[in-house]
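Entry:
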Amino acid sequence: ASDDLLIHWLSDKTVAAYGRTRSPFRTSVDGCQRLSNSKLLTADLVKRRIEVLLSCEDADGPKSFEMTGTLATGHMYYGLLTVEMLGRSSQGNPVFIELFDDQTERRRAEQAIAAENEARKVYLQNIQLFQTFFENAPLTMGVIRVHGDDDLEYLFGNASTAKAMGKESPAEIPGTLASDFLSPGARQLLVPGVRQAMQIAPVPSRFVVSLDDRGVFSITIKHLKDDQFAYISEDVTEFRQLEQQIKRQNETLEQTVVERTQQLQHALAVKSRFLSIMSHEMRTPLGGVTSTVSLLLRDQCLRPEHREMLHIAEVCSEQLLHVINDILELARLEDRSSETILECVAFSPQQCVEDAMEIVSFNAGKLGLELVTDIAGPIPVAAFGDPGRLRQILVNLM
């Protein structure tokens, strides 16, 4: 048929592969089994097999084909199929002989080997990359172990380690002792750090040491196996110098701030003393003015307009005296010797308002203005407080 194949004979291995037994297969045409009945091949594989056979119908000799696909079991298979036409049956159908070389296991092995080779290639590339980094790193790196009580043996290291030891290349490092290039004092600082790493393995240990005139180094030790330890050493001399420089600059800055603060406090003290002295000097002549005005007001022969002007002078002198007292209080505040103290005396609120009006009435008259005091509603006859400050507030408002 055009969509199937009749099997005349199979080898024992092929019979087993198709999931059959030998008994159903006979050499006569009537006993042929259809390939589509196989438990192993899918319909697509049967179709592919028919196409291959028909392509050999007019071939001169055997032909080979690479076959691959997915079996009915879900597994992939690979093989080499060799086909040769033998002739035709009594019904005129072509008869072929085929040999299938199953290469599935070999192909899987080849794929596994290829994957392993690729993984090995990547691993070697990483090793080479790490080796390049290790050899050219600016940090000194390598493997050491404790030698005796106070010494270290270097098993291998990078170019930076060789340079620190004064050697030409890393190949000269194995077997080198710390005592070959470090002083006893430096070894006394270095060996305890390695022994501490032995005690806290596998946790890395980090410490900072000053190695002779070589500088200050930050060293990290990590236990590898047995008595071997990996080390990484970084020169932090410049960082420590910069750290000390910043510390000194901060100390200098703090000292400058203290000095400037002291100078400012001194300037404030000088200003306070100046205000205090000047205020006292101003109070003396002002006291004479106030006394003179008070004496003139006692004269009963004064004309009313003169008496009014003297009263204004008296109120203004008292107001100026309060201003001077405020300056004195400001000076005391800056000296932190006292606090602002408000008076608490009995005074007449109405009289305080009238006094403030009299102070500004003279200047208002020059401007052609008439000031009128109009107190709405009853107010207390007397109150307790600071009449001078209240009068100063009213004058400033007007």
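The two ends are 126 Å apart (CA to CA).
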